[in-house]
Amino acid sequence: MIATDKNAIKTDVLVIGGGIAGLMAGIHAARQGVGVLVAEKANTKRSGCGATGNDHFMCYIPQVHGKNMEPIIAEYYKSQVGGFSDHALASIFLRQSFGRVQDWQRWGISMRPKGKWDFSGHAFPGRPRIWLKYAGHNQKAVLTRQAKKQKVNIANHLSITDIIARNGKVSGAIALETAGEQPVLRSIHAKSVVIATGCGSRLYPSPTPGWMFNTANCPVCTGSGQAMAYRAGAKLVNMEFPNRHAGPKYFARCGKATWIGLYKDPHGKPVGPFVSKATRALGDITGDIWSDVFTEKFKSGDGPVYIDCSSTSKADLSYMMWGLVQEGNTGMLDYMAAEGIDVRKHAVEFMQYEPFLVGRGIEIDQHAETNIKGLFAAGDPVGNFRADCAGAATFGWIAGQNAAARAKRMAAFQDISDDPHARKRIRLYSGIMQRKTGPDWKEANQALQQIMNDYAGPRGRSETLLQAGLTYLKNLKKKTTETLAAGNAHTLMRSIETLDLIECGEVIFLSARERKETRAKHVRLDYPFTNPLLTDKFLTIRKQNGRVHMHWRDRL
Amino acid sequence: MPPIINAEKCNACGVCADICPTDVFHVKKKKTTPAIRYPEECWHCNACVLDCKQEALSLRIPLPLMMLYVEAKK
After folding, report:
1. Quick one: how far is CA B66 from the chain centroid?
2. Is the dihedral of CA A267, A272, A273, A278 positive or negative?
C-alpha cells in the first residue's frame, strides 16, 4: 500500500537532490532570505557522485592563469568535459569558478592542501592546466553543515518523483518518503524548483553481468531529473551523445580515479603519445580523451591495456595514493591492500565503462533556468553545460540565486490541487504498490539495459536498429507501466528510477535517429561521416500535449 | 556479500543505514544491528566503513569485481 500525507509541504524554493549542485543551490538560495527545502533521496552527508570525495575542480584563477581567460576556455573545450557546452555558459562558469573555490576553502574543504594553488593531472604537455587538485574527502559533510548553518531545511530519504507545472510555470512537485517500510506520498508547493539530481547511471549494462550497481558514478542517480523535466515540458539537449569513462577493469567504482602511470600494452609499450614518464603534474591523459583505447586494443587483439605506475617516482606515488583517498576511493585502496596489489610492481588492467548520462539533458539559460518558468537545473543533469563537480558547484550557486529571486517576486503559491499530471503519476505508483505479482524493477532495468546496448549502444546505431529498438522500448514501457510490482518503499523508489531511465532511453532513441551523422561517440553505421553542416548544432527535444518536438539550434 | 557488520563491535547507532547512498541496509527495529537487506545494490563507495565510529564495518568485494593485474614489465 502507498500512504498519502494530506499535509502539503510549502517552500519558496525546492531543490531536488542534495549533491554538490543541490547543496550549493540550497545554500545560496537561503542566503537570499527565502525558505529552502533540499529533498534528498539518501542522506546529503554521503549522497551522489561526490559521496566520499573528489580531488579535481576545474577553475580559472587569474593570479595563476593570468588576466586573459581565453586560453583557459580553449583548454576547457579540449578537455574530457567541454565538448557539448554552450559558449556563454562556459564563460560564466569559468568567471565564477574561483569564487566557489574560495567559498569551499573558507567553509572547510581544503582547496589548497599543499599550501598553494596546485593545478595538476588531467593535463596535456605544454598547455595550460585547468584542474585544481584539492582534498575533497569531507566535501559532502562540509556542504551539509554549511547548508544547515544557512537554515536550509534538509529532508533526507525524501525522493521527488515529478514536477508539477502549469501554463509553462512551475508550481510544485510530488514527493515520496522512503524512510519507512511503507512509502508515503507528499505534495509540495514551491515557487521555484531546482533540479540537481545528478547523472544517469544504470541505462546500459555494467562491466559485470547482473551487477547493475557496479557503476563508476552513483548508481542511484538515474536520469530522473531529465525524465521529470521532460514530462513537465522542459527541453532536453544533446541526449544522443553517449559518454563513457574508463578505469580499472570490472571494479567500476574506481573509474573516477587519479592514477599517475602510463597506459601500456602487454609488451610494456605506451599506447598514447603524450608522456614517456608520468608525474603528478602530467599523468597520462590518453585515458581521458581516448577512452576507446581500451576497447579498441582489445578488439584488434593488441590488448589488454594496463596502467603501469612502476616508473612513477616514490614521491608522486605517495601523492597519487593521497589523491585516491581524497577522491573517495578508499574502498578500492582497502581492497588492493588486502589482495596485495602493489602499484610499484603490478600493472592493473583498465577498461572502458558503459555509457551514462552526464552533461546530456536539461537545457538551461545563463540564469540556470529552463524553458519552464521557475524551473532551474544545475550539475550533471544539464545538457548544454558540463564541468562535473566544479560545474555543479558553480551552476548550483547560480541556480540557487535565481530561484530565490524568482520566489521573492512571486506573491503567492500557485494552486497544485487536482493536477491531472500528478493524478496520473500517483495512479501509476499506487498500481505498482498494489499488485501482488508482477516483474520487479530489476527485471525492467535489465530489459532496458539490453535494448539500450543492442539498439542504441556504443557498437553503432542506424535507422533500422534505432527504429526497431524504439519499438521494443515502447513495448517494454507499456508492459512495465502495466505490470511492475513493488513490495515496499525501497523497491517502489527503484521502480520509479527504472521508469525514469526508460523515459531517458526513449529520448535517446529519438534524438539518435534525428542526428544523421557520426560525431564523438554517437556512431551511425548508416552515416559513418561527420557532417560539417552539423558542427556546433545542438538538437533539443521536448514534449508538449503528448507530442514530441525536436529542434536544431546553434551552439550559443 | 558487501558490506559486512561485525555484530560484536556494532553499537546499533544506525548511522550506516542512514547515510548509505544506495539504501543497502535495513533497520527493522531501532537500536538493533541493521541487516544487509540489498547487498547487490552496494556501490562499494565505503561510506559506511568511513562513518562507522565503532569500526564495525568492512566491505567484501564480490568476485566478479576482482581487479585484474600482472607484474609490470621492466
Report:
1. 17
2. negative
Q: Where are the domains of chain A?
A: 1-17+32-54+136-183+213-244+356-556, 247-352
Q: Does residue B71 form part of some domain?
A: no
| Burial label, A528 (beta-carbon count in 10 A; 0-12, 13-18, 19+) | exposed
Contact A490 B49 (CB under 8 A): no
Q: For B15-71, what is each residue's pLDDT tens digit?
A: 999 999 999 999 999 899 999 999 999 999 999 999 999 999 999 999 999 999 999
Lowest pLDDT segment from A277-286, A309-318, A359-368, A447-456: A277-286
Burial (CB < 10 A; 0-12, 13-18, 19+), residue A292, is: middle
The pTM of the full predicted model, rounded to 2 decimals, is 0.97
pLDDT for A79 equals: 87
Q: What is the 3-state secondary structure (H, E, C) of A117-130?
A: CCECCCCCCCCCCC
Domain that holds residue B36: 4-63
- Residues A31-84: pLDDT tens digits? 999 999 999 999 999 999 999 999 999 999 999 999 999 999 999 998 889 889
Chain B interface, Cβ < 8 Å to A: 18-23, 37-38, 40-47, 49-51, 58-59, 61-62, 64-74
The SS3 call for residue A172 is strand
Number of structural domains, chain B? 1
Q: Are strands B25-26 and B35-36 parallel, antiparallel or unpaired?
A: antiparallel
Q: How far is CA A169 from CA A39, A164, A165, A208, A365, in A?
A: 20, 9, 5, 43, 16
Contact (Cβ atoms closer than 8 angstroms) between residue A260 and residue A279: yes
- The CA distance from A472 to A475, in Å, is 5
Residue A369, beta-bridge partner list = A376
Compute the CA torsion angle B32, B34, B37, B40 (nearest 10 deg).
-170
Contact B42 A213 (CB under 8 A): yes
What's the residue count for chain B?
A: 74
Does B14 fall in a domain?
A: yes
CA distances from A78 to A28, A71, A90, A386 (A): 30, 11, 12, 13
What kind of fold does domain A247-352 have according to CATH? Flavocytochrome C3; Chain A, domain 1 (3.90.700)
Q: Which residues pair with A57 in a beta bridge?
A: A132
Closest residue in B to A262 (Cα–Cα): B72
Judge whether B69 lies within some domain. no
Identify the closest residue of chain A to B61 by CA–CA distance: A335
Give which of A401, A5, A363, A42 is closest to A174, Cα–Cα.
Answer: A5
Name the packing angle between helices A489-514 and A441-455 (round to 10°).
Answer: 20
Architecture of the CATH domain A1-17+32-54+136-183+213-244+356-556: 3-Layer(bba) Sandwich (3.50)
Residue B74 within a domain: no
CATH assignment at residue B18: 3.30.70.20
For residues A141 and A235, what is the distance between their CA atoms, to the nearest angstrom? 33
Q: Do A213 and B47 touch (CB under 8 A)?
A: no
Q: How far apart are CA A554 and CA B17, in angstroms?
A: 47
